[in-house]
């Protein structure tokens, strides 16, 4: 029996460690490049900018974004109201750039012909109806390609980037958890791994005796 236990322990020690899943994250510069690359002269330009600003400013899921209503915007108070998973509402602070982008889009939206069931829906397609999740993916793909981003990104990438940048800048993990609408703090802790991984790579890259060939 003792030999079996020793063998089991040895196998556990020898087994390869599985790295935690680390999501794709954009740098602040890459996000700025995407925003600055949007063609604001195009009919959908200000809408697309407002979409990306909101995704990054508030860390929204794509489902939360497409279901966002004008009546959910409390810009004077600096918050938006979001209906998250399990029909749970939460309030999220919203930054000035996102507020300005949305307000500019709203000044154009009032001239649209809007479907009856979409009067309170914030983001609309050219037919005046609610945007689909698939359309948000296409918008992100188009605008990231225009900016020359080579990473494989999606709307969720801006949520990951929001959370990672918050943690990097010292935000309390519980606050980030509440803003993201995570049930468990364990889900939010992935962003501490992202931060640690970038920190580790930075040290190894800059250290004069670093073995750069071992970086993954």
Report on this structure.
With 216 residues, the chain is mainly alpha-helical. It has one domain (28-208): Orthogonal Bundle (hpI Integrase, Chain A), CATH 1.10.443.10. The chain is 52% helix and 6% strand. The chain is built from 10 helices and 3 strands. The protein has a 3-stranded antiparallel β-sheet with strand order 1-2-3, with no helix packed on it. β1 (73-74) and β2 form a beta hairpin. α3 packs antiparallel against α5, α3 (45-58) crosses α7 (155-168) and α7 packs across α10. The protein is globular and about 45 Å long. 28% of the residues are buried.
Q: What composes the largest sheet?
A: 3 strands, antiparallel
CATH top level?
Mainly Alpha
Fraction of residues in H or I helices: 40-55%
Proper CATH architecture:
Orthogonal Bundle
**Computed structural class:** mainly alpha
Q: What's the total count of β strands?
A: 3
Strand content: 5-15%
Cα end-to-end separation: 40 Å
SS element count, helices: 10
Rounded to the nearest angstrom, the radius of gyration is: 21 Å
Q: Report the mean per-residue pLDDT as an integer.
A: 81
Shape by Cα distribution? globular
- Stated plainly, the CATH topology is called hpI Integrase, Chain A
Please indicate the count of domains. 1
Helix-strand sequence: HHHHEEEHHHHHH
Give start-end ranges of low-pLDDT stretches: 212-216
Order of strands, widest sheet: 1-2-3
- Name the CATH superfamily classification: Intergrase catalytic core
């Amino acid at each position: 029996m003792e030999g079996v236990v020793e063998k089991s322990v040895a196998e556990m020690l020898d087994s390869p460690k599985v790295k935690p899943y680390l999501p794709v994250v954009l740098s602040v510069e890459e996000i700025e490049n995407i925003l600055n690359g949007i063609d604001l002269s195009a009919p959908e330009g200000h809408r697309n900018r407002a979409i990306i600003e909101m995704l990054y400013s508030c860390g929204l899921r794509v489902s939360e974004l497409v279901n966002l209503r004008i009546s959910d915007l409390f810009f004077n108070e600096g918050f938006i109201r979001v209906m998250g998973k399990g029909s749970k509402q939460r309030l999220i602070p919203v930054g000035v750039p996102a507020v300005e982008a949305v307000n500019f889009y709203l000044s154009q939206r009032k001239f649209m012909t809007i479907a009856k069931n979409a009067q309170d829906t914030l983001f609309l397609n050219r037919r005046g109806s609610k945007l689909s999740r698939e359309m948000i993916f296409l918008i992100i793909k188009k605008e990231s390609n225009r900016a020359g981003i080579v990473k494989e990104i999606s709307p969720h990438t801006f949520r990951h980037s929001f959370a990672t940048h918050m943690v990097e800048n010292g935000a309390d993990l519980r606050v980030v958890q509440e803003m993201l609408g995570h049930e468990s703090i364990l889900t939010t802790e992935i962003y501490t791994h992202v931060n640690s991984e970038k920190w580790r790579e930075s040290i190894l890259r800059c250290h004069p005796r670093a073995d750069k060939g071992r970086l993954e």
